[in-house]
Amino acid sequence: MTSPGILSCNGVVSYPSETPSVSTFLQTHPGAYTTTRTHNNSSCLMFWERHVQRLANSARILFDSNPQLLFKSADAIPPLLTPVSSSMWESMIKSLVDDSLNKVLPVALKERRDGEELAVTVLVEGDFQKLSGIEDVSGSSIGGVFDVYAHFSGYVPFAFGVGGNGARLAVVGRGRDVAEAKFSDWVRLRKPLEKLRPPSVTELLLSNDGDRILEGSVTNFFVVCRKDNSAADFEVQTAPISDGVLPGVIRQLIIEVCINKGIPLREVAPSWSEHELWEEAFITNSLRVLQHVKSIQVPRTWELRESKCWDEIAWKEKQFEESPGMITNVIQFDLHGKTGGDCASHR
């Protein structure tokens, strides 16, 4: 068992018995959010500066193009919103989030059980009603329109490379809208996909055509693909942001690792039609960090809308080795070094 969750709003903490699960919380609050976890016996937050920057970018994108995904009271007619500069967004979000976490982190750490890390989800939610008293929404006063929620729960880190720990994936649905921003309504939107999840599958993959695989429902997706049937000539593939995938923090770190290690990488959606050339596959997010893939299932025909349940679908399957492949191991080892070196200490 993990420790009970803690939820705060603008630094005011709810008692553990009142705390919903993180998925329930996200379904009941619109907004931009990010999730990470602590590292090294909860002494620091992993890749925190990158998460704050991504959170600010998500909030800015939603504010400019889809304010109904950022604000509660969305049934009200929104005023004309003036775009706010990226630098102001980042400064504002960092100030709001840091102020909130500084108040609640000591409480969350006190509730943490020995041997656990903390999963941390921070959500920024706007309120249209608060806009009425602001004359210049492009100025610094825009910060007063937002509330910052922080959800903490106990988390036991995933053991990389252990036998039986490979992910089992299935392609079940189309890619997300507004994929460049991470917003809470996606938790509700992805729920219908669950009816198509085979029992052994641990993560769902998204594709718009049943061939080019974009990402997972909560992960980014990578394959190590041979070129021209040559075992010595290969490249790492992952879908580009322009295809409509979330710009994950770990995704970007993987790209940096490949560049630094001289590992060939191409930002292209892995194509199932080439799956015979796939030697390895792995998924990434900020809780698992990196997990090798054991199997991938793909529907034989791309008529998922007619299916009401996973057992009505005829599947094809690709199997990988039980343990991580050589390239996955190299990337994970280098990424592990970054995990310890790119943390924001809070003690």
UniProtKB/TrEMBL annotation:
One Pfam family per UniProt: Aminotran_4
Domain of life: Eukaryota
TM ranges: none
GO terms assigned for molecular function: catalytic activity
The protein's name in its UniProt record: D-aminoacid aminotransferase-like PLP-dependent enzymes superfamily protein
Native source species: Dipteronia sinensis
